[in-house]
TrEMBL record, chains A, B:
This is Sugar/nucleoside kinase (Ribokinase family). Signal peptide: none annotated. GO terms for cellular component: cytosol. PANTHER family: RIBOKINASE (PTHR10584:SF166), SUGAR KINASE (PTHR10584). GO terms for molecular function: kinase activity. Residues 21-282 form the Carbohydrate kinase PfkB domain.
Amino acid sequence: MNKLLIVGTVAFDAIETPFGKTDKILGGAATFIGLSASFFNVKSAIVSVVGEDFPQEYLDLLSDRDIDISGIEIVKGGKTFFWSGRYHNDLNSRDTLVTELNVLADFQPKVPVEYKDSDVVMLGNLHPMVQISVLDQMTAKPKLVVLDTMNFWMDCALAELHEVMKRVDVITINDEEARQLSGEYSLVKAAAKIHTMGPKYVVIKKGEHGALLFQGKEIFFAPALPLEEVFDPTGAGDTFAGGFSGFIAQSENISFGNMKNAIIYGSNLASFCVEKFGTERMLDLEKEEVYDRLKQFRELTQFDIELE
Amino acid sequence: MNKLLIVGTVAFDAIETPFGKTDKILGGAATFIGLSASFFNVKSAIVSVVGEDFPQEYLDLLSDRDIDISGIEIVKGGKTFFWSGRYHNDLNSRDTLVTELNVLADFQPKVPVEYKDSDVVMLGNLHPMVQISVLDQMTAKPKLVVLDTMNFWMDCALAELHEVMKRVDVITINDEEARQLSGEYSLVKAAAKIHTMGPKYVVIKKGEHGALLFQGKEIFFAPALPLEEVFDPTGAGDTFAGGFSGFIAQSENISFGNMKNAIIYGSNLASFCVEKFGTERMLDLEKEEVYDRLKQFRELTQFDIELE
């Protein structure tokens, strides 16, 4: 079985949406990536850090899905990273209410020996220096390195972000971030510029408007599944990245054709994530549901026009 | 050959985009619909009204494409409908600078006898009473009636809009209009409500984010082609409607599967429209280019995942 190494936050989230609010619940990029990737036949491990306040039951939820958690450091007396946000009525934008870095402030990732030769490395959104440190610990060149990042690092760690970008194969960012990073409004032009910064594949996430995959002149588009109700978008981007990297790790095929399938799987899994608060839906999700929804994605996008 | 009847404005537009501005040029919903539909093997006619100031060369551009213009009334001493708008930097929004109804204010549409039994009727954006008047003149029930409308009529002629909606098969509106008309934020819920108002098929246009086709529980999505540069979005929605209705009229097949093809053709033709100012690109467009772009749409959307 191929190995997938995931680095990212394991955290507490408190979320307010028009539909309700939560106390501190399980969150974090690596959590969503790990849960999403666990739907594929891969050996996966999370590298992260939590405080002593982090419940064992949350860690158990991850190990129960065969995710190796030996790389999740528990800092004695430390407090877990906490994020709180409030979504606007359209659920497309949100205000951050609280960000407490806590143990994340001094996070030194330690890749478990067994995962130093992982086939796929999924670098979840974190300081670029932490992402670089993970790559530095690899003893064999991974078949694919996927980078997720955000506008925050473009604002305050741009040089380091450029360093890590030179060392990855795929970058996943949202449309506004692609525009900020490239200085181009057109996403086609933005992707072309981002290619020159390192990543051979550029995935631009547009939330409810789907995701674009670029490799040079080739473009593929995966829609988001139109849903009756989006309940909580938290973690959707990470779930997308988990589906993408989990599928690639399982299939071990990094052709453009297979990347297309990977972003369809990413969109598929993300469409479940938003149906309930936090990780709730991902925790009760069955493989059969994922396959059924794949059929929906087919019906949604496949057509058959005969050319004259 | 099947007959397509088009009703809508034939007008002067003056457009400002970040890339430049035009004087009064050829515009109007029926113009864009007609030019777009002319790529299909259909007999088409436009019902509209212009003033004596409308240049013969503009009318010739339409007849040169085998569009029957006998239903375009020329009002002696009248002035042609004029619209002027300025697009914002992102080209997704615009301000209307001038709207001079002129001869449109008293427009009484007259359907040419030969087109009173048209197979497909495309009701371009106009006062709902004008649209109803066209339907009242039909001597045979059309196989398909397509309605385009806009938020303006929801604000000031809602009852009449509901009347015409009861008599059409397909409605095409944009996402914000669908939300306004239905009172639902979710487009899935909005489409379901709009179904109950009459149209069996609901097409929701999302501009650069593509278009959704709903029939009951069935959903199809056509992306907009990602372009390096959008030059002028004027007429893109009408060009989409022209491609949609022109293809349906040609193929005479109103199954959901064929509707999918129709909205792919609509997106295809619209992707050309935005490449130059006004009708410029549609006037120099070759059929071969449309077929080539169809291949691009395939590559953009088609995937092949084997289910386990």
